[in-house]
Amino acid sequence: MPLRIIAFGAHPDDCELKAGGVAAKWAAAGHQVKFVATTNGDVGHFAMGGGQLALRRAAEVKRCAEILGVTTQVLDIHDGELLPTIENRRTFARLIRDWQADVVLCHRPNDYHPDHRYTGILVQDAAVLVAAPFFALDTPPCPKNPVILFYSDDFKKPYPFDPAIIVDVDEQIELKRACYDAMPSQFADRDSWMGRYLPGVPADDEGRRVFIREWLINLDTEVAGNYRELLVKRYGEKGMTTRYAEAFEVCEYGAPADWETLDQLFPR
Predict the structure, then answer these.
(1) What is the CATH number of the domain that holds 124?
(2) Is the pTM of this model over 0.90?
(3) Would residue 29 count as lying in a domain?
C-alpha cells in the first residue's frame, strides 16, 4: 500500500537537508511525501529579511519539491517566533490529519535553535491527539497514531542521537546537491547564514556555492560513517561501501515500531 509521509522542518531548508534523500526514494516508489516548514525563514539572511526573504525562501523550497518529487508547504509564522501554543498544536495536528500520515519526521526537541526545539515538541504534543475524534473537529482523525521519527543531529545532552533506521542515499545525492544549489539564500549568497559563519568559505561566488554545498553533502558522509554498523545490518555487504546516508531515531510518543516495521516503512 502507498505510504503517506509528512516531514516537519523548522525553516525552508531543514526537511531538504535532513530527509531529502529518503523523501526522493519514497516519492520514486509511489509514496506521497509532504515537507512542512514550520516558520517562513524571514530572518535567515544578513542582507535581506521580512516578506522579501520569506517569498524568496518559499520559492526555493518549491523548486526543491519539484526536484525531489514531493509536496511542500511553508507556514506563515515568523522565523524565531515558533512557540508550543495550543493553536500551533492544533495546526500541527491538522496537518498530520489532513495528510493522513503513516510516518511523521521532525527535529529532536533538544536543539540549538528554538524553532527546531519547538517543532519537535509540537509534533510530540500532537501525537495521539491526531487520532482523537473530538480534537480539531474540522479535520478527520487519523485511524491510528503514526510512527514518529527524529532527524539525526550531533547534540549530546540529555542524550546523543540514537538511530533506529538508516537509509542509503548514494543514488539520491545528486538530487540533494541540486536542492542545495536551488537555495542560494541559505547556501550561496555572500550574506547567507552559512556564507557568513561557515569557516573557510571562499570569497568568490562560485567557490562559495560549491564549498558550502559540498560541506553540506559531507554531513551525509558523516552519518554513513558514524552508523556503519546499522548500514551493514540493513544492506549487508553493500552497507560497507555506502558513502551517503540519512538516519532516524524513533520517537516513543508515536506508534511502536520495531526493526522489521521500520525496514518495511523506509525505502531501501
Answers:
(1) 3.40.50.10320
(2) yes
(3) yes
As for how many domains the chain has, the answer is: 1
CB atoms within 10 A of CB 128: 16
pLDDT tens digit string along 225-235?
Answer: 999 999 999 99
190 lies in some domain: no
pLDDT digits (tens, 9 = 90+) for 242-259: 999 999 999 999 999 999
Answer yes or no: is pLDDT of 180 > 90: yes
- Does 56 reside within a domain? yes
Instruction: Give domain status of residue 119, yes or no.
Output: yes
Range of the domain at 69: 4-169+246-265
